[in-house]
Specification:
By secondary structure, the protein is an all-alpha fold. The protein contains 5 helices and no strands. Helix 2 crosses helix 3. The radius of gyration is 11 Å and the shape is globular. GO terms for molecular function: DNA binding.
Amino acid sequence: MENLNRIKGALADAGKTGVWLAGQLGKDPVTVSKWCTNTTQPDLQTLAKISDLLQVSMRELIVNKNG
């Protein structure tokens, strides 16, 4: 599967866990796990919330496919 986001890396950089993120977003930890493994992708609103919580830009959460 192609990597489309780098939520897992951003969580590691911030010293946070998927369980922590799930709690902050009111989501099931399994859902966050699927985002971290790029099985599914969060919608843009959720991605914006994740960027706020991890204090990174949305751009940093998205893998650049052009280089």
